């Protein structure tokens, strides 16, 4: 393989695995460090790259991995203590492993632009998108509505992105986020208002939606290095940044 964008390569391999094995290929493991210095690991779901949607044009692109979490999750405390994390992603269809090292940022209801200043420049605005497009899904329409005039800026509104990811979540999973109920009933989003805010026509479910959203966090990983192993052949390589911040690709000695 010649030097190439790790994002292009990772996306291509993920697409192949989804075609072979379904959406379970988006499951990966996120490793963190607890406050006492011991390791913690759990299965999470890759939610795509920040600002991007597979089926709807948002006008943004990035190389930032996204995942989601409830604020009450123990991994949130781990990340607050030590934001350096590692993702171990085994893709069974193509029999390869990606170990992705980087820094994790948690976008919560009280997160400010200043808290995410290190991500400036990591998301790129690529064009202006009109909110009236029939091809846009509800998540993208809400995202663009929340941006409003700010969509002309070159800095992503991370609260608008957090809201977009809330829209994209499955109804059943969304229902696990409110803390005032143990029922975990599906929470549907029926529509949005003229501010891009989610709407359920049932008053109680609307309350639970808003409570759940308060407990919802978006995890954003800025990648620093990727270690890649092809398990069938043992081929081993890495993607990393040089001293100028340019990505380079390097083959290593074959190793499992």
UniProtKB/TrEMBL annotation:
Pfam families: Pyridox_oxase_2
GO molecular function, one term: FMN binding
Domain Pyridoxamine 5'-phosphate oxidase Alr4036 family FMN-binding: 4-107
SUPFAM superfamilies for the chain: FMN-binding split barrel
Name of the protein this chain belongs to: Pyridoxamine 5'-phosphate oxidase-domain-containing protein
């Amino acid at each position: 393989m010649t030097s190439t964008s790790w994002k292009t390569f990772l996306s291509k391999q993920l697409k192949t695995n989804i075609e072979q094995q379904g959406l379970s290929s988006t499951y990966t493991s996120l490793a963190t460090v607890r406050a006492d210095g011991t390791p913690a690991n759990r299965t999470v779901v890759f939610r795509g790259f920040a600002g991007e949607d597979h089926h709807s044009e948002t006008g943004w692109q990035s190389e930032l991995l996204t995942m989601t979490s409830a604020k009450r999750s123990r991994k949130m405390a781990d990340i607050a203590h030590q934001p350096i994390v590692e993702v171990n992603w085994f893709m069974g269809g193509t029999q390869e492993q990606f170990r992705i090292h980087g820094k994790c940022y948690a976008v919560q209801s009280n997160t400010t632009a200043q808290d995410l200043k290190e991500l400036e420049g990591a998301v790129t605005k690529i064009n202006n998108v009109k909110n009236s497009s029939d091809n846009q899904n509800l998540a993208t329409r809400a995202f663009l509505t929340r941006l409003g005039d700010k969509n002309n800026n070159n800095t992503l509104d991370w609260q608008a992105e957090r809201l977009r990811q809330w829209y994209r979540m499955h109804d059943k999973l969304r229902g696990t986020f409110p803390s005032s109920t143990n029922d975990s009933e599906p929470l549907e989003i029926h529509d949005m208002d003229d501010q891009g805010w989610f709407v359920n026509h049932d008053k109680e479910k609307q309350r639970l939606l808003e409570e759940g959203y308060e407990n919802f966090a978006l995890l954003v990983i800025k990648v620093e290095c990727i270690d890649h192993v092809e398990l069938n052949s043992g081929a081993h390589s890495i993607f990393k940044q040089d001293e100028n911040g340019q990505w380079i690709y390097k083959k290593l000695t074959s190793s499992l």
